[in-house]
Design brief:
Low-confidence stretches: none
Order of helices and strands: HEHEHHEHE
Structural class: alpha/beta
Strand content: 15-25%
Domain Barstar (barnase inhibitor): 40-121
Family: Belongs to the barstar family.
Radius of gyration: 14 Å
Number of helices: 5
Number of strands: 4
Mean pLDDT: 89
InterPro entries: Barstar, Barstar-like_sf
CATH superfamily: Barstar-like
Distance between the termini: 16 Å
Largest sheet: 4 strands, parallel
Organism: Naumannella halotolerans
Protein name: RNAse (Barnase) inhibitor barstar
CATH topology: Barnase, Chain D
Strand order of the largest sheet: 1-4-3-2
């Protein structure tokens, strides 16, 4: 494990908001994050080929409320309402960059990461393959 990855794991263990890239044994990361006190959603991007489907998948992964409209404004609103540390794990990184609309979705997710007035939010890219 590199020094950078060790520092990222330490920040995650402390439930600090951020965008992280980590490598673990396949399937282990969500369990470890939950043990560290994160509410965890796992985003699987296989078969997603447009922004709306991506937004629906994020809604399922984070168990967003029924009123979630699967658009960027609704995503931002729902992320604002998260009341405990929450991590969205991308289990197929870097594949999502190929999805049309990915950059706009990442902008909303990273805006929420930077919001220090609310419960921590982390975007975690799991490179375990």
């Amino acid at each position: 494990m590199s020094e950078d990855e060790s520092a990222e794991r330490h920040r995650l263990a402390g439930r600090q908001a951020g965008v992280y890239e980590v490598t673990t044994q396949s399937g282990v990361l969500p369990k470890v994050l939950a043990e560290w006190g994160w509410r965890v959603g796992v985003l699987r991007t296989e078969g997603i080929d447009d922004r709306r489907t991506l937004l629906l998948a994020i809604g399922r992964a984070l168990d967003l409320p029924d009123w979630y409209g699967a658009n960027l404004d609704a995503l931002a609103d729902c992320l604002t309402d998260l009341d405990r540390p929450t991590a969205l794990v991308l289990d197929s990184w870097p594949r999502p960059t190929e999805i049309p609309g990915w950059d706009a979705v990442v902008d909303v997710l990273t805006d929420r990461v930077r919001d220090q007035e609310r419960a921590a939010f982390a975007l975690v890219m799991d490179r375990s393959g």
